[in-house]
Design goal:
- It is an enzyme of class 5 (isomerase).
- By secondary structure, this protein is an alpha/beta fold.
- It is 34% helix and 18% strand.
- The mean pLDDT is 96.
């Protein structure tokens, strides 16, 4: 389970990080947007570096940006433990994956809702994580796209048939109401932002998501 800090209260960021540290969450999910690949801008290396100072769990950085290869080393320096790039933003995807792994991070590739999983066929064995976007990237609080369940099943089949080891991560509209079904479809890691940070008891919600997914 990976709470998305995009939905956190940034005036209380240190406290929000401490809450995730105390919780049963596995990773911090950090969304980076450039206003070009997606129609929004979030935060970058300086904020991630500050989060890393307090985080006692891995930092899972999701780059929703153009030309991610220009910044991979900087995100590693800022504290990224895993780095996920979008297939749609990478002209030379295999090169991007090898760059990330060469820097000592877990390598992930994200797919937008319209992108078929079979486009990963020739790189799936090189990946540590595949991030399935269950909303269109760029904004939090969107409605979950139902086709995602089928897409996860297709990806799970591809991973199994390829003898690959990639974790399936799902991001967008994830909450206690669909967590169990997502895991049943084949997901390993659930990213939740609004469902966690807008709840009256975020730690309890994280626990509930973990329980629902078991």
């Amino acid at each position: 389970m990976a709470p998305s800090l995009l939905a956190a209260n940034f005036l209380e960021l240190g406290n929000e990080v401490e809450m995730v540290n105390r919780s049963e969450a596995d990773w911090f999910h950090l969304d980076v947007m450039d206003g070009r690949f997606v129609p929004n801008i979030s935060y970058g290396m300086p904020i991630i570096a500050q989060i890393k100072k307090k985080a006692n769990k891995p930092c899972d950085v999701h780059l929703m940006i153009e030309e991610p290869e220009k910044y991979a080393a900087d995100f590693k320096k800022a504290g990224a433990d895993s780095l996920t790039v979008h297939l749609e933003a990478c002209v030379h995807l295999h090169r991007n994956i090898q760059q990330i792994k060469g820097l000592g991070m877990r390598a992930g590739v994200a797919l937008n809702p319209h992108t078929p999983v079979m486009l990963l066929e020739n790189v799936i064995r090189d990946l540590d994580v595949v991030l399935i976007m269950s909303v269109n990237p760029g904004f939090g609080g969107q409605t979950f796209i139902e086709q995602t369940y089928h897409k996860i099943q297709q990806l799970r089949q591809l991973i199994t048939e390829s003898n690959a080891h990639a974790l399936i991560e799902v991001d967008g509209g994830v909450g206690p109401e669909n967590a169990a079904r997502l895991v049943k479809a084949g997901a390993n890691v659930l990213v939740a932002g609004s469902a966690v940070f807008s709840s009256p008891d975020p730690e309890k919600t994280i626990r509930l998501l973990k329980t629902s997914a078991q």
